[in-house]
Write a structure and sequence with these properties.
This protein is α+β, with helices and mostly antiparallel strands. The protein has one helix at residues 7-24; strands spanning 35-44, 52-53, 60-61, 70-79, 85-92. The chain has a domain at 32-92. The longest helix is centred in the N-terminal third of the chain and has 18 residues, at 7-24.
């Protein structure tokens, strides 16, 4: 019998199932009051000249750009009435 899901898809489904079981079992977090601050930025990071490509036994230098590279960051923060930080999260891709 073949596996229905494999690799990353299977791990993703397992993670979602675990999250649902936590939420469904009554796992709660007490809410903190305060202001929610959200910011994001995105910039192109494509090299402007040829670069050495890694991951092979021999050195290979790029000759063109097939797809531009972009870096994006998202910052989320909550602050209380006095302006003190309660929680924060930063995600980069």
């Amino acid at each position: 019998m073949k596996a229905m899901f494999s690799g990353r898809v299977g791990l993703w489904i397992l993670g979602v199932a675990a999250l649902i079981s936590f939420v469904d079992s009554g796992w709660t977090v007490s809410p903190a009051t305060g202001d929610l601050w959200i910011g994001w930025a995105s910039t192109e990071i494509t090299p402007d000249r040829p670069v050495a490509l890694v991951g092979q036994k021999h050195k290979r230098v790029s000759t063109r750009v097939r797809d531009p590279l972009t870096a994006t960051a998202l910052a989320i923060e909550t602050k209380n009435e006095q302006g003190d930080m309660i929680d924060q999260a930063v995600m980069v891709s």
